[in-house]
Write the structure tokens for this entry.
Amino acid sequence: MLTDLEKNAIRDHYQNIGKNLPGFRPRASQREMIAAVANAFSRTLSCEEGGDAPKREGESIAVIEGPTGVGKSLAYLLAGGIMAQTRGKKLVVSSATVALQEQLVDRDLPFLVEKSGLELTFAIAKGRGRYLCPYKLYQLTQGNAQQNLLGFEAPAVLWDSKPKPDEMRQMRELADGFANRSFNGDRDTWPEKIDDALWFKITNDRHGCLKAACPNRAECPFYLARDTLETVDVVVANHDLLLADIGMGGGVILPAPENSFYCIDEAHHLPKKALSQFAAEHSWNTAVWTLEKLPQITAKIAAVTDKAETANLADEAASSLLDSLHEWQFHLAEEPSLDFKPSENEFRQNDSDFNRKHNDPVWLWQDGKIPEDLELLVQNTAVAARSLLKHVYSLNEALSAARREKDQDGALIDRISSEFGLFTARTEQISAVWDLLSAVPPEGSEPLAKWITRRIDDKNDYIFNASPISSASHLANSLWRRAAGAVLTSATLQSLGSFNLILRQTGLVWLPETATLALKSPFDFEKQGELYIPPVHASPKDPAAHTAAVAEWLPKLISPQEAIGTLVLFSSRKQMQEVALRLPDDYLPLLLIQGDLPKAALLQKHHQAVAEGRASIIFGLDSFAEGLDLPGEACVQVIIAKLPFSMPDNPIEKTQNRWIEQRGGNPFIEITVPEAGIKLVQAVGRLIRTETDYGRVTILDNRVKTQRYGQQLLACLPPFKRIG
């Protein structure tokens, strides 16, 4: 239950915003959300001292859909911040991207503190990979004479080839900037682009990190940032970091779940983000390189520790694993499904990313079952990988012990530890893949998706993959049943009028006390917008005819003389490009096509054209249907070429769909249509962004009229005035 102190604090600080911000209008939906967040967190269960952890059933969890304009971030920051302070918890806010994290830290939280008077401290949390390692940076930029005095050479994993002049120049600039504190070591704050390959050499992972033994520990950007997290009220993370922390057991980078109230923004992204976090993959080429090079580093470890026998055991396990991988080569070369057959008109010269996505052959193990003739090889590979990981961990412990001995060459051991970190991380990755590939789930439970991809490029690689088909059980057990409280929010959490899909995907369906709330939009959709479904006779099931129809209709819908912005959304890049080629010549100067320019440059050109009194037309794909903010005249018309159905074209979705069918379900009705509903609402949501916006949404897909699910999808859209 909420205490009077908490109720009064929330009310007073909310009223302060109105007093300190001229023109601020309290919104009923925002007040409703503040109350829902506070009430959810007030129901948190406490653990009695020395007692067992409380059994959580979702009583302190709320799923809140808040349409654009509600002011969701202010609501959860105000209520969540006060509840965290009064209940002795940390408020962990998680967003979908680093950009949204920075918006919360640079804009939303300072605004709340300034206008409400709430004393709230906060900090951003990022993974190790966003920070440089001073130790590595100094080692790579110091003179050869200094290296020789220390008595060791730069490890091959740092400079695997002679550095280019530009690399050394940028490296020295980074070192100088960090030394004089004009650069804080956070990659995102460096004004120039840093090449990934160069950054990899000066960042660190948890295995290569020397931790407390590092001579540069006191100035380490990662540890300084992590130390700060322990002193603040609000930690702003992102979904990837949150899931990585949970995957390591929780409380490793972020505050422990038992001590955290979570506010998860853009929560509709969480299930798929979690799925990628819990999946595993490794490259055949990379694994072989790692195993072949391993004896060189184990020999160095044996020379500075008394673990020669462990080093030998690691080498033997690596050799056994290497034999298994070479045996895999014969099976992979003979597997028909891994033959390369480029799709007609699809293969593109010099476009390896496109070809990889569309043409790389895949060998999917149906229902996640190991092929009978490969069962022994799979088990042997998994056993060798586990054995190697065990010995690698032992060697890591030996290095730590050796570092504590005063008569040892500390600098040499530190360099070996840093170099060995890469091998430890790679070995963990390989072992994780084979643990999943060799796993046999209990009868009747969900299968794992297991597949091998042949990478078609100059290296001709194979990628071993395994993944759960749902992240629900991981989230339920690792996060929701441990968290002190959680609020999941987004503008689009309902699908087809219910929260069933998000509850199933996140595992909250198994926590029956979870609350759900759909807030009303502050916009007057009937007055601000129109929905038009023109008589397009061609069905998207006939792609050529539908593309011709879209190209025919666009000039009827868009006037090249009217100085407004139009957003046309496609589900296919191929259709988008073909329609662009078929438009009349006078439309071509108005076109801005996603992919032709960086997103920021494209939007700048669009805003400039509208501001100068010219029409501007953006052609975009799925990613432009979400998160694109074009208020006012910048977007007066949204045209949707095709309902946003996604085909089950990846191994996880294919395995999931077969699992649903085997249980007597219909994956199209259970997953495809509900997910399309969310995407359609997101696309339509590009039109009305403020209370003064106006415009029209047009859908050029006749299935909204001819199919039963079309009426379900239309019923989920805002109540625009229907025309035509």
Observations:
- The chain has 26 helices and 18 strands.
- The radius of gyration is 28 Å.
- The first helix runs from residue 4 to 20.
- The chain has a mean pLDDT of 90.
